[in-house]
Amino acid sequence: MDRQEYIEHLLDHYQNPRNKGRMADADLQLGGGNPGCGDLITMYLKIGDDDRVERVSFEGEGCTISQAGGSIVTELVAGKTLDEVTALGTAEMVEEMGDDVVKSRVRCATLALGTVQAAIHQYEQGRERERVGARMTAQDAVPFEN
Ligand code: FES
Prior knowledge:
The mean pLDDT is 94. It is built from 7 helices and 3 strands; from the N terminus they run H-E-E-E-H-H-H-H-H-H. By secondary structure, it is of the alpha+beta class. It has helices at 3-15, 64-77, 82-87, 90-97, 99-104, 106-109, 111-141; strands spanning 28-34, 39-47, 53-61. The radius of gyration is 18 Å and the shape is elongated. 56% of the residues lie in helices and 17% in strands. FE2/S2 (inorganic) cluster is lined by residues 34, 37, 39, 62-63, 65-66, 107-108, 111.
């Protein structure tokens, strides 16, 4: 895409956002914000059995780039495993938005991706705590033999 096509792509996502709306039965949701401007985004994910993103949506208010980013990120992460989503970075956002936009507005461009990755991080920490809790419970249940 050339510069003009990237701009049109962004405007299309801003004006016709994909997967926008609250997800009542989300497995994880997290709000993120850009402290510099107060713009907000909330990402919702439904996780399938194989740790893939089964459904994804977003809500938010803010600049064109951050909100177009929400829409773009929903398309980018749909069907990916949590590990694959975690591995996404600026390079993928450059592919979607163009070098100029990401370089000049990096906080706007990465708000949605950063939020979805933070949500996954929290989710995985929660699962790890559950695993440790379950292990401790299982150990507690083993009677000591003297
Ligand atoms: Fe606030 Fe873009 S100006 S996220």
